[in-house]
Amino acid sequence: MSTRVQQSIEIVTFRLAGGSADAFVAANALVNEWLRQQPGFVWRQLAEQQDGSFVDVVLWQSHDAALAAGAKMMEEMAQSPAMTMIDPAGLEMKHARIRVSVG
To answer: What is the pTM assigned to this prediction?
Structure first.
């Protein structure tokens, strides 16, 4: 069994509670800056689906880094403009350890 730390991917799906998709995307500049400063952050992609919902995918260097940043985000970024536009009722967040990666 390998002792190498496995990267982790965070997948968040949600709908907006209000506001336009364009306003939401613009409001994410602050979230992006916050993420860049978190230990273990690799990259983020935010996508809008055809039905208007969003998928937010973040790659972390480790599962522990992903979990730590998630907890910290709820403390530090919960009242940011982008976060307040999200409907909490439909928000779903998952973390998964990467087993295969092809680049």
So the answer is: 0.91
**DSSP at 5:** P
- Distances in Å between the Cα of 82 and the Cα atoms of 7, 62, 87 are 26, 25, 11
pLDDT at 5 over 90: no
Query: What are the residue ranges of helices labelled H in the chain?
Result: 21-36, 63-76, 81-84
Beta bridge partners of 58: 10, 44
Give residue 44's pLDDT. 98
Whether the pLDDT of residue 1 is over 80: the answer is no
What pLDDT does 3 receive?
53
CATH code linked to domain 8-97:
3.30.70.100
Residue 76: partners with Cβ closer than 8 Å, 6 or more residues away: 34
The domain segmentation of the chain, as residue ranges, is 8-97
Among 101, 9, 25, 94, CA closest to 58: 9
Nearest residue to 93 via CA among 64, 42, 56: 56
